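Look at one record.

>
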Amino acid sequence: MVVCPVKLVSGLPCPACGSTRSILLALTGHPLEALATNPLGILSGLAGSLCLAWIVFDLVRNTRSFERCYHQAERSIKRKVVYLPLIALLLANWCWNITKDL
């Protein structure tokens, strides 16, 4: 069953296709298969988990360290030296997904 709107319309997987499978594979003890399914899926799952833990930590400690870091990241992402490699990484992952025919 295909649920990705990009794949339904174009027939091609999007850069995020396979992310859920990748995270589930990692959580069930198959890290190499997870990386092979969608390398950015496992990284985004890890990043999301760390952000959630950080936010909970800030709430418990009544601090705003995550918010400060988020705003710093928001400023940094506007620099070419940061966003161009990220775009290249996303495009490489998209090519990977197309090649694997996810």
Notes: Residues 1 and 79 are 39 Å apart (CA to CA). The mean pLDDT is 92. DSSP finds six helices and no strands in the chain. The radius of gyration is 16 Å.
